[in-house]
Amino acid sequence: MNQLFYLFLTIIIEFIVYIIAIRKNFLSLFAYCLLINLVTWPLAILFYGLSGLFWIIEIGVFILEGALIKYLIEISWKKAIILSFITNLITALIGLLII
Amino acid sequence: MKSKTILFLVTIKIILAIAIVSADVITPGFHGISVSNNITNIKDFPDYVFVSGGGIGPGMCPMKIIDDGGIIENYYKFCSVFVYAIPKDKFDVNIIDEINNGESITNEEAENLLKGISGIKVLENIHTYEEVADISPIKEKMNEYVIDINQLKSSPNNVKTLKKGLAYRYILVSIIALSIIVWIIIKKKRRK
Question: In A20, A57, A91, B79, which residue has its Cα 20 to 30 A from B142's Cα atom?
Answer without folding.
Answer: A57
